[in-house]
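Quick one: structure for this chain?
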Amino acid sequence: MALHFSKYLKQKMGYLGMINLRSWSCCFYQKQPYLSRRFESFKADKQLGSLHNGGDPQVMNFPGGIVKFTPELKFLSDTPEERIHCYRVLDDSGQPVSSNFVQIDKDIAVKMYKDMVTLQTMDTIFYDAQRQGRISFYVTAIGEEAINIGSAAALGMDDLVFPQYREAGVLLWRGFTLQDFANQCFGNKGDNGKGRQMPAHYGSNKHNYITIASTVATQIPHAVGAAYSLKMDGREACTITYFGDGGTSTGDFHAGLNFAAVMEAPVILFCRNNGWAISTPVSDQFRSDGIVVRGQAYGVRSIRVDGNDALAVFTAVHVARKMAISECRPVLIEALTYRAGHHSTSDDSSKYRPIEEIEWWRATQDPVARFRKWLEGQGWWTTPSEIELRDHARREVLHAIQVAETVEKPSLKEIFTDVYDVPPSNLCDQEKSLRKTVERHPQDYPHFLF
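Got it. Here's what it folds into:
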């Protein structure tokens, strides 16, 4: 189907007229044109006589807009006659089914593929490292590489990323090195978080990538608030927040979506609908047509995308970003995909879904293989290049792990830093208590000295 908001690319964008307020406020709003839309309902032409549209008794200008009356007793249907279509560019074999996508040059396309392969390789090796007891926890993005890299490639470096815990590829695209990833997972001195976060909970101020938290969907209100701040500062940037289908079952999702719509925050709300919230299928989470319809209910422009199609994801995010910044509006993207790996190293997904189902998705819907076929069709990729890339990526990941294992752990005193300017007395007492414990049991803390 055609891209729902493709007309945006063909129309010249503008904004509504300014509000005639007092002189001081008028100057302010002229500098902030996006604020004009919020106050349309308070324009002076809305007199008592205009509450009815042209005197028509079957129309009423209720708060929020004009509503027509009807004598029919008709409830809205609980299920649509047809599900919202899913935008895609490449079919399962990597062949374009449409020319309606944002063109990308060879260098960007090749980098996208290389990062997808690197992410896939890193996930495989780090997962094995956890199974070997070398790190305590890990989360993979197997089956969702196109979402990671396709969306990251469409963003600007000034855009703020509020991830969940399956978007390491976005950070990889922005320049976070394999050594940086390994340092975080091993919690050594090279870790930005000083060893205080769970493995795979990355964060980088340098790359505008907000530190991951395990709590589900708390990043959504944060992203909306930050987007509103960007708008108030007149910045040419937006925020993007990622979350899974399970995240949409939280209050934070609904509060964040409504706040974004009402305050017209330039935020991209990106839902990875991979079918499972750990062991809970979407059929046990909601009865609506997925996530995309929820955006419309809150007054947010929305689109459903094939999350295994890197070109479709890139195009949707590219256009959504332009909308968010130029129009100062939120955009919701629902990417349909499948979590081809376990939820995390603490999970065994074979306990709640058929192994045959997992293998089918891995074999026939691999987004990395699909994008490679398209690259080959463009004449931009060859088999020798593939062999060289995968060999290089594997060696680089293994080297990063070997180095990370030899780096010292952060000092225990780092537990008590970076929160308070002047530590409170109870925190000082805890530090003294821990210090005494280490002194009494040095054999238990050989690498954690103050």
